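Dear H.,

Thanks for agreeing to be a second pair of eyes. The structure we're designing against is below in token form, covering all 239 positions.
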């Protein structure tokens, strides 16, 4: 602390204290998760969109020794968990809704009923039908595993590509309709989808499947340049 005096209107002198700039403030928001996790990145994109300052704590859910302290915060051992002061919350959709409601800034959920319904629909499609084929099958086996010196499984890639087509088709229809994924209003639907498409499009098969869905491809060419998306790009382990 630095002490300094000010002269008040009545002539009294008051001693005030000012925080030194070098003193680090304790961050109230911590995102606990795994750098390469798409779900971790969804929450990070929402935090960046709202301009929230946060710290990160690395937890790899794929290791066998996930710390006990973490499991107390997330009984299913997945990532991420958001901590805000003493409040912990897990499940990415819940985390993102909390971020949107708890912090100032532009709202990431539309107020209008049709668009609000579409946001929830995109999030649910991505979670229920998209994550596994796009990320765990196509990206993991074509891009991530080879990047760490492991062999990808061609059958997983082929099955993942096949299963990704109806997902891309459904998202393309929603982008074409224009209530969400429209390149104008960046919502929680964009936050949820961007990390999955970012990974999927790194596989050559993924990139060409995306290109044959023109509304979705055009949404991605807008979303991939968004600051919150570029700032949260985790790269690959040995980049
Ligand atoms: N329903 C969870 C899903 C989170 C999730 O599956 N995260 C992955 C990383 S992208 C994970 O923790 N996987 C560990 C595992 O499958 O054991 C959420 O919405 O947060």
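And this is the sequence the design step returned. I haven't edited it by hand at all.
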């Amino acid at each position: 602390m630095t002490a300094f005096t000010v002269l008040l209107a009545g002539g009294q002198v008051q001693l005030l204290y000012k925080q030194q700039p070098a003193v680090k403030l304790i961050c109230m928001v911590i995102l606990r998760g795994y750098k390469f996790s798409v779900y971790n990145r969804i929450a990070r994109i929402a935090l960046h969109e709202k301009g929230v300052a946060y710290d990160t704590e690395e937890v790899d859910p794929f290791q066998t020794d996930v710390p006990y302290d973490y499991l107390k915060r997330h009984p299913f051992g997945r990532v991420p968990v958001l901590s805000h002061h003493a409040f912990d919350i897990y499940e990415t959709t819940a985390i993102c809704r909390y971020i949107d409601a708890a912090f100032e800034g532009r709202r990431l959920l539309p107020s209008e009923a049709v668009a609000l319904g579409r946001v929830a629909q995109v999030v649910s499609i991505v979670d229920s039908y998209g994550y596994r084929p796009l990320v765990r099958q196509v990206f993991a086996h074509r891009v991530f595993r080879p990047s760490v010196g492991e062999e990808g499984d061609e059958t997983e890639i082929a099955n993942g590509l096949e299963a990704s087509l109806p997902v891309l088709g459904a998202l393309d229809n929603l982008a074409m309709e224009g209530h969400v994924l429209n390149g104008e209003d960046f919502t929680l639907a964009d936050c949820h989808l961007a990390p999955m498409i970012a990974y999927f499009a790194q596989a050559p098969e993924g990139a060409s499947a995306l290109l044959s869905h023109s509304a979705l491809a055009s949404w991605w060419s807008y979303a991939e340049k968004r600051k919150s998306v570029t700032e949260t790009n985790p790269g690959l382990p040995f980049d």
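Two observations from my side: Residues 37-39, 61-62, 78-79, 91-93 surround glutathione (CB under 6 Å). The chain has two domains: 1-108, 113-231.

Warmly,
E.
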